[in-house]
Structure formats: structure tokens, C-alpha cells
Design brief:
alpha/beta; Rossmann fold; six-stranded mixed beta sheet; four-stranded antiparallel beta sheet; binds adenosine-5'-triphosphate
């Protein structure tokens, strides 16, 4: 296995509040890597540091062999880091298909894939075909003409996955993909992630509170507490770790089924 993403000794503070304390981790190409921990542990902060939404004081982030510590989020996206947010970021007043079209066009522009003017008609057909493929990927083909604001919470999340996939990512960063969902939508979202991963070989990095979702998807789990890593390893290794037992005593992590 080769590393696709490494975080090396990263420190991040908000004012005098030291949030990430010399955090280091390595994500292997093709694995599903989950970050868990109690509320306020620093998971979202770690995510934002990895995706380039916020800066940090010390350490570095290496993606696909290059130091991206100072690269802004859009540059990391261009290099292949796709992401979704806890609250879906979509255009509510345009249709599902148009949301995807915007994402496909944005990727083409940012990667210099736009065709010359004489080729525009063919390009439109290409874009339409790509949008249709993404609609099928995320199970929204029958809702292509629906304005995004009318979608259910679960379907909004599907659309956000579609938008992320339109960027042709190598690694997909999912910040609490099932947050606020009904149990049915949670299962559907976990199934969608599992299918996309199987079909595309995507590397997935996710935070999530639902242990059933984590145990169903993750190859490895990292546990954070107060901005520090207290364990990293397989589900079995993490469950057996005494520090994890202390933090999660009697909680879902020990009841969820594999
Ligand atoms: N912009 C900010 N300014 C100041 N403090 C912040 C900011 N964002 C987060 N924090 C603080 O940093 C700490 C870690 O927050 P973070 O959102 O990373 O935790 P989390 O593990 O993702 O929590 P949750 O599971 O509740 O989403 C918390 O104490 C939070 O209050």
C-alpha cells in the first residue's frame, strides 16, 4: 500500500485554545479511514486542515507525494481531493442536473479540460453524458429536473456526493455524511459510500458519529480526544485499546455490530 495523504505533526490553535496537538496520520491509497472521537475532540478541525479550509501553525500535509500545506482548498480539490460538508452545499434554486452541470464545468475549467470554441457542441454533449452518469452513480436520475431545495435530506446528501464525484476525486473527504438523517437515509448513504468505493476504488476519509456506519465501512479507525490521537488501527484493535475504553465506556462503540 502507498500513502496518499499524510498529516505530519500538525498543531492548530484558535486563539489560546490549542485544538490539534501534534497530530500525525497516514491514509493509504484505496482504504476507508474513519476519524472518531467525542464532541469537540477536533475532528472537524482536522478535516479542515486536511482539505485546506484553514491554516495551521506547525507541521505539514502531504498529498500524493507533494507538500500541500500552503495550498488553498480549491487547489487541493483540483489535485483530486473531493469533499462533502456536514450541511450540504448545493444551489437550492436550480435543478439537480444543473447543480451537477456546474460541478462538471468547474472541474473541466480548473483542470484545463475546456475545449476550443469550434468543439463546443460536442463538449455540451460530453458534459450532458457526464451529468447523466453522475445522476446514475448517486441514484438521482428520476429527480434530475427537481429543484434541489425540494429534495429530502438524504437526497440532498446524494446530490452533494454527485457534486464531489464530478470533480473526479482520488480521495473523498466526508464530514459526518449521515448527520441529521433518518435511520433509513443513514443506511442508504452508507450503502452508497460502499458502492462508490467498490466501483471506483476511491480512498475515503470520514468523520462520523454513527458507529454502525463506521463499523460497516472503515478499514481503519483513528480515535481523537482533546485534540490528540489516542488510538489508530483496525476496528478490533481500537475496540481493545484501554484509552478508547475509557473515553467510550459503555457507549455505542462496544455495542455496534461489525
Ligand atoms: N472557529 C473556531 N473558533 C474557535 N474555536 C473553535 C472554532 N472551531 C472549533 N472550535 C473549537 O475547537 C474544538 C474542536 O472543535 P471541532 O469542531 O473540530 O470538534 P469535533 O470533534 O468535530 O466536534 P463535533 O463532533 O461536535 O463535530 C472545540 O472546542 C470547538 O469549540
Amino acid at each position: 500500500m502507498t500513502a496518499i495523504l499524510s498529516v505530519e505533526g500538525v498543531d492548530k490553535s484558535y486563539g489560546t485554545h490549542h485544538i490539534l496537538k501534534s497530530v500525525s496520520l497516514t491514509v493509504e491509497d484505496g482504504e476507508t479511514f474513519a476519524v472518531i472521537g467525542p464532541n469537540g475532540a477536533g475532528k472537524t478541525t482536522l478535516f479542515k486542515v486536511m482539505t485546506g479550509e484553514i491554516g495551521f501553525e506547525r507541521g505539514r500535509i502531504v498529498y500524493d507525494g507533494r507538500d500541500v500545506s500552503r495550498a488553498p482548498a480549491h487547489e487541493r480539490a483540483r489535485l483530486g481531493m473531493g469533499r462533502t460538508f456536514q450541511v450540504a452545499r448545493i444551489f437550492p434554486d436550480v435543478t439537480v442536473a444543473d447543480n451537477l452541470t456546474v460541478a462538471v464545468e468547474a472541474r473541466r475549467r480548473s483542470r484545463g479540460e475546456s475545449a476550443p470554441a469550434w468543439y463546443r457542441v460536442a463538449t455540451r454533449a460530453d458534459i450532458r453524458a457526464e451529468v447523466e452518469a453522475r445522476l446514475l452513480d448517486v441514484g438521482l436520475a428520476d429527480k434530475a429536473a427537481v429543484e434541489a431545495k425540494f429534495l429530502s435530506h438524504g437526497d440532498k446528501k446524494r446530490l452533494e456526493f454527485g457534486i464531489a464525484l464530478a470533480g473526479r476525486p482520488r480521495i473523498l473527504m466526508l464530514d459526518e455524511p449521515t448527520a441529521g438523517m433518518s435511520p433509513t437515509d443513514r443506511i442508504a448513504t452508507a450503502d452508497l459510500i460502499a458502492r462508490l468505493r467498490a466501483e471506483t476504488g476511491l480512498t475515503v476519509v470520514m468523520t462520523e458519529h454513527d458507529m454502525d456506519v463506521i463499523f460497516g465501512l472503515a478499514d481503519r479507525i483513528l480515535v481523537m480526544n482533546y485534540g490528540e490521537i489516542i488510538a489508530v488501527g483496525s476496528i478490533e484493535e481500537v475496540r481493545a485499546n484501554p484509552l478508547v475504553r475509557e473515553v467510550y465506556l459503555g457507549q455505542e462503540i462496544y455495542h455496534a455490530e461489525r
